[in-house]
């Protein structure tokens, strides 16, 4: 008999997440983020979280609301540019940050899902990415309390590569466009981003969807993430689907 993965709401879906958990959170900027799951974590007050996500939202939306509530102790990200609270907490020594080149970030997650503990890449060779010393945690006086470590390098066919460790997590929180009741997932265009990889790299995957259909209604060839990777599903509503920044071009510019 198939496991019933469908729960009533976001609060029920995150009930297993405890203080100190490591989370992978899907989304690119504010595109494809699990809005309701993030809001449920904010309401519950789960703290001391390590969050692996491309970025940390903005001050009043996305992961930024967890940051504002002091629920995140460490971020593993590629880009942090639209969040003033992130900057302030990092520089004051209140937030640990591991910055990762974006392609390396993707591959570290994919490797984690594939059971590959580490891999070699040319990205970052000869920089602080490989040599170490990138600030990860500041002291309250502004000095560097913790810097990134020096990484192993190796030469292959005359070119130098740096070794990067895989990323895994306790939970993946992702948003899909459609799912069936077994948990087979479809994502919509760029909202697909990192989410399928994250679903494979976490011990448990929690999914919010815009539409839930009966089993057998999805074309098997269209499925992006098979149900074997999914543990909890609920249907969200009233998505804001905001963008990070909107600019207006002056006429004639």
Describe the model.
- With 253 residues, the protein is of the alpha/beta class.
- The protein folds into two domains: 10-117 and 167-235, Glutaconate Coenzyme A-transferase (3-Layer(aba) Sandwich), CATH 3.40.1080.10; 121-165, no CATH class.
- It is built from seven helices and 13 strands.
- The radius of gyration is 19 Å and the shape is globular.
- The mean pLDDT is 93.
Summary tags:
single chain; 253 residues; alpha/beta; Glutaconate Coenzyme A-transferase; 2 domains; eight-stranded mixed beta sheet; three-stranded antiparallel beta sheet; 7 helices; 20% helix
SSE topology:
Elements: H1 10-13, E1 22-25, H2 35-44, E2 49-52, H3 64-68, E3 72-77, H4 84-91, E4 96-99, H5 102-114, E5 118-121, H6 128-131, E6 135-138, E7 144-147, E8 153-156, E9 159-165, E10 169-180, E11 185-186, H7 195-201, E12 202-213, E13 232-235
Parallel strand pairs: 1-2, 1-10, 2-3, 3-4, 10-12, 12-13
Antiparallel strand pairs: 5-9, 6-7, 8-9, 10-11
Helix pairs in contact: 5-7
CATH superfamily of the largest domain: Glutaconate Coenzyme A-transferase
Query: What's the total helix number?
Result: 7
Q: Note the run of SSEs as H and E.
A: HEHEHEHEHEHEEEEEEHEE
Q: What's the architecture of the largest domain, going by CATH?
A: 3-Layer(aba) Sandwich
- Helicity range: 10-25%
- Biggest sheet character: 8 strands, mixed
Report the β-strand fraction as a percent range: 25-35%
How many structural units, i.e. domains? 2
**Terminal residue distance:** 63 Å
User: What multimeric state do the chains show?
Assistant: single chain
- Secondary structure category: alpha/beta
Number of strands: 13
Low-pLDDT windows of residues: none
CATH class of the largest domain: Alpha Beta
CATH fold-level topology of the largest domain = Glutaconate Coenzyme A-transferase
The gyration radius over C-alpha positions equals 19 Å
């Amino acid at each position: 008999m198939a496991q019933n993965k469908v729960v009533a709401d976001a609060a029920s879906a995150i009930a297993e997440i405890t203080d100190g958990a490591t989370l992978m959170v899907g989304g690119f900027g504010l595109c494809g983020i699990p809005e309701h799951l993030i809001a449920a974590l904010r309401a519950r007050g789960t703290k001391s979280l390590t969050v692996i996500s491309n970025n940390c939202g903005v001050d009043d939306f996305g992961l930024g609301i967890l940051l504002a509530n002091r629920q995140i102790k460490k971020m593993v990200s590629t880009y942090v540019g639209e969040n003033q609270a992130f900057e302030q907490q990092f520089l004051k020594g209140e937030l640990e940050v591991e910055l990762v080149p974006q392609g390396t970030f993707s591959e570290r997650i994919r490797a984690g899902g594939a059971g590959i503990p580490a891999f070699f890449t040319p990205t970052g060779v000869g920089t602080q990415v490989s040599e170490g010393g990138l600030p990860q945690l500041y002291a309250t006086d502004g000095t560097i309390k913790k810097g990134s470590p020096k990484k192993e390098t190796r030469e292959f066919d005359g070119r130098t590569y740096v070794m990067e460790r895989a990323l895994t997590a306790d939970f993946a929180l992702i948003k899909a466009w459609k799912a069936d009741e077994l948990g087979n997932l479809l994502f919509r265009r760029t909202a697909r981003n990192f989410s399928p990889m994250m679903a494979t790299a976490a011990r448990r995957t929690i999914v919010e969807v815009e539409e839930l259909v009966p089993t057998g209604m999805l074309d098997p060839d269209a499925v992006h993430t098979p149900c074997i990777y999914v543990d909890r599903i609920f249907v969200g509503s009233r998505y804001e689907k905001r963008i990070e920044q909107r600019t207006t071009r002056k006429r004639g510019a």
